[in-house]
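Input/output pair, single chain:
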Amino acid sequence: NYNPTYQMPKDPDIYPFTISLPIAQKELDFLNVGYIISKNDEPYSSVINSILAELGLVKILNDDSYTLYARDVRETEMDSVDFGDAQANLHIGRGLAQGESGTEVMIATRAQVFLRVDNPAKYRNLHITATSSGNTELKIYINRKEVGKIVLSETTQEYNLPVLDTLIPHVNSIMFIRSETSDPVSLTTVELK
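Output:
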């Protein structure tokens, strides 16, 4: 950051775009992105604009140094996350780090994942596969509404909690909260059924 009243910005560090185009497309679908505005007079603008074109976004409007891009929004449900999958990072919000063999470990007292649904009425349960090195109580919230508590054991177990009327169309936040003194928690899957 800089103070624009007496400093000039430094040249930005531009790194190669390393995410595959199919994963980037999936991110756009997950977040329901239909429009992107790009600033055209920055050193990185040509790189960004070429990536947007590769992703299938189409220029629909130019205005001074800005361009508006558009894409068709695809209705797509991403109602589960398997932490052994390479694309699991699409769903992780915070508080998780890669663990052993297809798990994510809660590195904070709060962890968050996101799932996307287009028809919330068809889901009845939140299915979680998890373990802990001790008897750890985990509170689970969907969109800030508590849906239940589970007590994790040392063996990997499956847990089901009713979702009731907590889901909304599109992106839903699922929050896991444990006490500061509890043992670490490993999550394997989170799924709406």
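The first helix runs from residue 21 to 30. The helical segments are 21-30, 45-54.
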